[in-house]
């Protein structure tokens, strides 16, 4: 069971959520699936580079300078540095997409992520809220908001992500990474913030 819980935590890692977001809107039954494939691939490349690869590459640098003790980031203060670097690369991603046609939804994703991550880092200074649950809660919020504002059918995807949120929450509790309050607060923070802006 422990290996299963860890596997779910890795598959639903916060760094993966922007990539899943693109997969859902580009490959699902949405108006964004009509965006030219070359632009979709460019969006994938930018998101993977700025929001997945570069934050991962920065972790050994932080450890080398003793800003973090290990890659688990179990102490709330240790999370601030990776979050700040993620904010910086989110700005870079937004810059790389500026002026590219049909990428407004991805640019919107970047801007909202900058605000969400900034607020999360402020909370993290005082309290350890679940980053996993904040990320998947935000993904649920995005799916709900896009399904309500744009043509297409995302109900099935939204229900799947919602079920995965529950599974992830159980896994984080089983692994004793968070308290129930930190799990619930993380999901509600991510979901409530995204829907509050987009709905």
Count of domain modules: 1
Strand arrangement, largest sheet? Answer: 1-2
* Poorly predicted segments: none
Structural class: mainly alpha
Radius of gyration: 16 Å
Dominant shape: globular
Let me know the largest β-sheet: 2 strands, antiparallel
- Taking all residues together, what is the mean pLDDT? 91
Count of DSSP helices?
Answer: 8
Q: How many β-strand runs?
A: 2
Overview of this protein structure:
With 199 residues, this protein is mainly α. The protein is built from eight helices and two strands. It has a two-stranded antiparallel sheet. The chain is globular.
What is the structure about, briefly put?
Helix content is 74%, strand content 2%.
Please give the structural blueprint.
Blueprint: H1 2-11, H2 17-27, E1 29-30, H3 37-64, H4 80-97, H5 104-126, H6 131-149, E2 152-153, H7 155-174, H8 180-198
Antiparallel strand pairs: 1-2
Give structural attributes.
single chain, globular, mainly alpha, 199 residues, 2 strands
């Amino acid at each position: 069971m422990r290996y299963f819980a860890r596997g779910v935590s890795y598959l639903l890692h916060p760094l993966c959520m922007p990539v899943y977001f693109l997969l859902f809107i580009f490959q699902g039954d949405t108006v964004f699936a009509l965006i030219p494939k070359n632009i979709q691939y460019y969006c994938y490349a930018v998101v993977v580079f700025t929001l997945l690869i570069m934050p991962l590459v920065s972790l050994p640098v932080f450890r080398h300078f003793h800003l973090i003790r290990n890659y688990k980031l179990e102490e709330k203060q240790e999370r601030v540095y990776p979050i700040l670097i993620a904010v910086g690369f989110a700005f870079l991603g937004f810059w790389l997409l500026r002026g590219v046609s049909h990428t407004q939804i991805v640019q919107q994703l970047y801007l909202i992520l900058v605000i969400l991550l900034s607020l999360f880092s402020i909370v993290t200074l005082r309290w350890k809220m679940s980053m996993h649950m904040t990320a998947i809660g935000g993904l649920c919020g995005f799916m709900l908001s896009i399904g309500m504002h744009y043509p297409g059918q995302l109900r099935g995807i939204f229900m799947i992500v919602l079920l995965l949120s529950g599974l992830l929450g159980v896994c984080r509790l089983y692994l004793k990474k968070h308290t129930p309050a930190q799990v619930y607060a993380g999901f509600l923070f991510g979901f409530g913030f995204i829907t509050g802006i987009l709905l």
